[in-house]
């Protein structure tokens, strides 16, 4: 029976074979790769990935689709289907601690939390190729100074080199989403681009600074980071958060909680 797309699972299935081909070419799967695909859906990307001979682990939350995938790939030794929520995934358990590649046309309704979740596994990942809303990819790859620069840019760029690859129009999907999409490649850094000793303090600093992006750092970080410490670190307390780069946020976060 034909599957009816479920909105709550962000189901927009890729139906344009040219786009599928371009994505799979960008991933360039090899027979000795271990690829985890998030949200395989009706197997638009999965089939060519499986045909490459790569070892594939599929994680699909929709029970009906997981059952269809199990049936479709029953005879394939290189394909495993896991029914579950990618947001809860313990990738170490899933892959037996092996280094893996990640791919997926991600459900847009949970794209940001899902990105934060997978970034936490960057040490185990060779690379990631995702389809996301164009606007999210712009934020991931943004540079300081503009509107798109923020928490997502900083977290992605601390962990990975971010390369937007190409855009995909709504007509490439059924049902068509309301937004344009883009393919992005994330390659985890061999060593971090800046030193961050306390990740929780860095995350808190970034999150609070951008929670009201029109406020100055002095105001948004009041009670958390002393303006005198900002000045000593060479950061203007009167600056707005979007003017600071990754290195400056790393420096600022060293003073988190030290209010004198
Ligand atoms: N890969 C397919 C394609 O390109 O046509 C489907 C992409 S569709 C945008 C997103 C897929 O992710 C759906 O199959 C949906 O059921 C699945 N999904 C949604 N939330 C999920 C979650 N939390 N964990 C795993 N899969 C999820």
How would you concisely characterize the structure shown here?
With 260 residues, this protein is an alpha/beta fold. The protein has helices at residues 17-27, 46-51, 63-72, 91-95, 111-119, 134-140, 151-159, 199-211, 217-220, 227-232, 246-253, and strands at 13-14, 34-38, 55-60, 79-83, 100-105, 125-133, 160-168, 173-174, 181-188. The chain has eleven helices and nine strands.
Detailed description of the structure:
With 260 residues, the protein is α/β, with parallel strands linked by helices. 34% of the residues lie in helices and 20% in strands. The chain contains eleven helices and nine strands. The strands form two sheets. The chain has a seven-stranded mixed β-sheet. Helix 5 (111-119) packs parallel to helix 7 (151-159) and helix 8 (199-211) crosses helix 11 (246-253). The radius of gyration is 20 Å and the shape is elongated. It binds S-adenosylmethionine. S-adenosylmethionine (SAM) binds at residues 9-14, 38-42, 44-45, 59-62, 65, 85-87, 105, 107, 110.
